Amino acid sequence: MRLRRGLLAASTGLLLAVTGCSSFTDASSSADSSSSSAPTTTPAEPEAAPVTWTDCDAEITELIAGTPGSERDLAFECGRTEVPIDHDEADGATLPLFLIRAKLAGQTDRIGSLLVNPGGPGASGADAALSLALSMPEDVLRRFDLVGFDPRGVGLSTPVECVPADLKDRLVAAEPRPTTQEQMDEVLGLTDEVAEGCAEEYGDALGTFNTVDTARDMDLLRESLGDEQLSFLGYSYGTTLGSTYAELFPENVRAMVLDAAVDPDADRQADAEAQAAGLEAGFDAFAANCTSLVSGCPIGGDPRRFVQDLMGAASAAPIASSTPGETRTATPGVILTAVAAALYDTSSWPRLSQSLAAASTGDAAGLFSLADAYNGRLDNGTYTNQLDANITINCADTPEDQTYSEEQVLQLAQDWNQRHPLFGAGAASSLYTCGVWEAARTPLPERDAEGSAPILVVGNTGDPVTPLPGAEDLAGDLTAGTLLVWQGQGHTAYPKTDCVTAAVNAYLIDLTAPQDGLTCPA
């Protein structure tokens, strides 16, 4: 699961209270009354519905107050529009999508809208618009309205909600490195429980939440926003969504930046192992940085051994938290989730080392804070629907023949645990998830996007989640792909360094793509 975190996750709760949200069952029930007419031989193309914008500037300004970048002269609007549940039934039932639009005062020579997706699948594009409005170069914001939308099934766009909070707590707390039959039975039993609950809640509708239909939604949004062609910035899973759009609508691409690319050529097994290897390398980079500190590393001279010993101790006696009212105790699952969360961004490394050190003395509050932010757990014990949507969309995208039995998963877990001792077994166990998922599948297309304008693919040499070969493969597959490499650490590159920022800005604004293979220093 690729979930880009840290994009003002708390905002979802406020926006939900401000705007309200329709359930998928409300939308699908209306399909019964609108689908009685006989289908035509050739499905009609759906028409783009207008976006209804409301002024939510006061609420959002209050939300972001004190956040770096909040001093910018920005105005925010909240939007609603409708898209078909089934794009082959243009006159059928619809579902609402939620959008945020940010405008910087003093725009000149406006180009249009820049649509953004932060990854996941399951991360909120509305939250991403808030975060990026505070951090993107103003040169770009002077030329574009920044627009983020919650994809179907995500956030405030008919969210998929079928995994209860207590089950999510148990998933996080479960054994993160299952290598015995007993451990694997526990982990896969929880996976079965998730699949059964979601199938019971949604039935056949689960297959509706897939990347291909979201890409079709995006083209309707482009029309609704009044843009002849799409300008798009996608991170992590957003590179899958963007490249799918480019494959379906190549002539409608104006500019597309795909940062931290998911490998389009890797099968599920290769992708899972590559991510485990990437996280291991990311941990080694964290450890090297920590032990090089002049002030000393809070977790000693061997961070890997420290974490392994801490997990062993927590397995025997889970660690309490000093947070008032917190009744959970930190298991090895919580510890490793916190570690993985912090590897996404180097700015989280000091917090990770301090939290690990505190946990070794009996206080897991810092680890819970990292793990909860990663999983979308709010202070009141409820969750956003990031996990529900992540599983649902990933499995809807996965062909039924790419499934793995319990026996295969256990064997891979044992093998990968030797090669990737922190993250290998957990990555192997994730291969079981979509094999028991009861939903229609809409596999991703092969993506060369022939006929598209140039597409800029960005990759990091030290990306722990989507390693650089994925960006190389995507840029190579795209007929008009151009690769930009950052020799940096962490997940995603733009706008973290001057070299990358200058190249991406020139491309977005002037459509001047950098030389293919340009490498930017750390």
Question: Quick gist of this model?
Answer:
By secondary structure, the protein is α/β, with parallel strands linked by helices. The protein has helices at residues 11-19, 24-34, 57-64, 125-135, 138-141, 165-173, 181-202, 211-224, 237-248, 268-291, 303-316, 332-342, 349-360, 365-375, 386-397, 406-419, 424-429, 468-477, 498-510; strands at residues 52-55, 74-84, 94-104, 112-117, 144-150, 230-235, 253-259, 455-462, 481-489, 518-520. Helix content is 43%, strand content 14%.
Q: Keyphrases for this structure?
A:
522 residues; alpha/beta; Rossmann fold; 2 domains; ten-stranded mixed β-sheet; 19 helices; globular; disordered N terminus; hydrolase; Serine_prot/Carboxylest_S33; AB_hydrolase_1; AB_hydrolase_fold; hydrolase activity
What does this protein look like?
Belongs to the peptidase S33 family. Keywords: Hydrolase, Signal. Residues 28-50 are annotated as: Disordered. Helix content is 43%, strand content 14%. With 522 residues, the protein is α/β, with parallel strands linked by helices. The chain has two domains: 52-159 and 209-264 and 446-520, Rossmann fold (3-Layer(aba) Sandwich), CATH 3.40.50; 163-207 and 269-443, no CATH class. It has a ten-stranded mixed β-sheet, sandwiched between helices. α12 (332-342) runs antiparallel to α13 (349-360) and α12 packs across α14.
